Task: structure prediction
Amino acid sequence: MLHLLHLIVASVLVVASGLTPARAANSTLVSVQTPRGVKQAFLLIKPDKPVASVILFAGGHGGLGLKSASSMTWGAGNFLVRSRDLFTSQNLMVAVIDAPSDKRQGMNGIFRMSRAHADDIGAVAAYLKKEAGVPVWLVGTSMGTFSAAGGAIAAKNIDGLVLSSTITRAKPQWKIAQSHRDGVASMPLQQVSVPTLIVSHKKDGCDITPAGDAPKLTKRLTKSAKVDVVLLDGGSPPQSDPCEAKSQHGFLGIESQAVAAMATFIKANGK
Result:
């Protein structure tokens, strides 16, 4: 069943303003070996009593270059990466995923949709299940939505999916332009059975992630246990290109509202 929720910043989830983010100093760098023999690194932030876990996928090439729990070479400003402590404040255990060891230069759309990547994601999910016996959700933004959707389609131990600023239009120069003209919407989303939330900014100015394309996704999610669409508004003036993280595309200035909307759906649809 599809529920369309139009959330305005002035009234959305006021409880978010009372959050006190956990400190990034509580994070640890973890690396697991995946079934295909590569190392998959991620930042782990664990609250005292997690009610669910989230694996966060940054946009762009996704190669954070994690060196330690407090050092990354790229991606610190990404919406999900910079908001990781807000997820922890919602009593969610957080794994901020890096590119795997064989993709240190970054991940393209082809790899993000591959079975190999899904197996890597499954290995991280298995680790989180052992750390805390709570549901594991995949949360992607922009190019990271290819990873999150691919994991929900093919990875094991996945309980839910959140897509934010989803790629729904492939650029002509992309290798996947012909096979995936509608980006994530061209993936076999009918194979997703877990609850799914789609989050967009009404004024996202990025030409490949327009909020108005949500129906492209919802009509394909025919077997998802539940599908909701959240449209946010407001925030701070853009400080970057419309397709970069410091703009409406990256929920600049309304990070807490975006995370609160995600956390609310996750908690309401946990197993």
Confidence is low (pLDDT under 50) at residues 3-25. Residues 115 and 154 are 7 Å apart (CA to CA). The two ends are 18 Å apart (CA to CA).
